[in-house]
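Figure S7 source data.
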Amino acid sequence: SENIYILGIESSCDDTAASIIHNGKILSNVIANQSIHEEFGGVVPELASRAHQQNIVPVVHQALAKANISKDQLHAIAFTRGPGLMGSLLVGTSFAKSLAFGLNIPLIDVNHMQGHILAHFIDVEGFKKPPFPFIAMTISGGHTQIVKVKNYFDMDVIGETIDDAVGEAYDKSGKILGLGYPAGPEIDKRAQLGNPKAFKFTKPKVDGLNFSFSGLKTAILYFIQKETKANPNFIAENINDICASIQYTIIGILIDKLKLATKQTGIKHIAIGGGVSANSGIRKALKDGEQKFGWTTYVPKFEFTTDNAAMIAIVGYLKYLEQDFSEANVTASARLRI
Ligand code: KG4
Ligand code: ZN
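Tokens for the predicted KG4 complex:
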């Protein structure tokens, strides 16, 4: 049983992805992005479902071809059960079920948020794996959570957003500034050229380890409306400083909560995941925290931070080792909890 091949399938949002894992190593990691949503400044669920249906067979074909194996060599099919957009999840779930049924191999349902966390356990040269227990912070366009991870499948959500996700805060700020979608990477790029203290945005007051980002978005909107009334070129003249100031505020919020989480739990190993973990500001702040607060921090390889199927495949592999398989009547779950 040292030669386990598992196919992972991810279709929770707007990326159709498939990956083959051989024991702990990723052999292929294929993603079909759906550029259609850029025109609308956000993901349109109906269009996402249709694109998944178009993409899923070619993406799985490619994943098998790149791994240089045939589907008959697979030991199990792992798929994202939730959370996510229901129509998108249904495509991956139905496809995974049918393929497992056709090949007569086990089906393994995976929680997308556990995938973001357990992506740290993919074997990658030069990347260390966090020891249990550790604190995971998952920051993406759909989610913002702080999780106490005691073991692979023993985790507690100890904090989360009560409204917008942090990636949403980036994307909505970008919309106000007239930047493209998703705006996170562009704000990050401009932030590195600007003065983070040029403009001040107040941090939301939220109890404990929970987050709130919708007030920040509104504060930015009012600020920009006021300033452009006085100077119509305000955005163009100050874009880098505005981005730097927004980023400084957001990073401050995330770091404050991590400080509190490590204080409350006594755990100083911190792992991040999700699309926003690509952000240069959070990466730097985490590194600085190693000196300042005695943290040890873990940032996954870039291709395993944004939505991908390798993280689903690694969870599939870990569950396969425990023979933790799905029932044949398992259903997609848009609000699945960790
Ligand atoms: O994990 P992901 O690919 O998909 C979701 O599950 O949402 O995350 C996408 C989010 C978007 O909101 C995008 O703006 C943000 O991640 N993002 C960034 C950066 N790269 C991607 N936000 C800030 N800085 C970045 N460098
Ligand atoms: Zn995600």
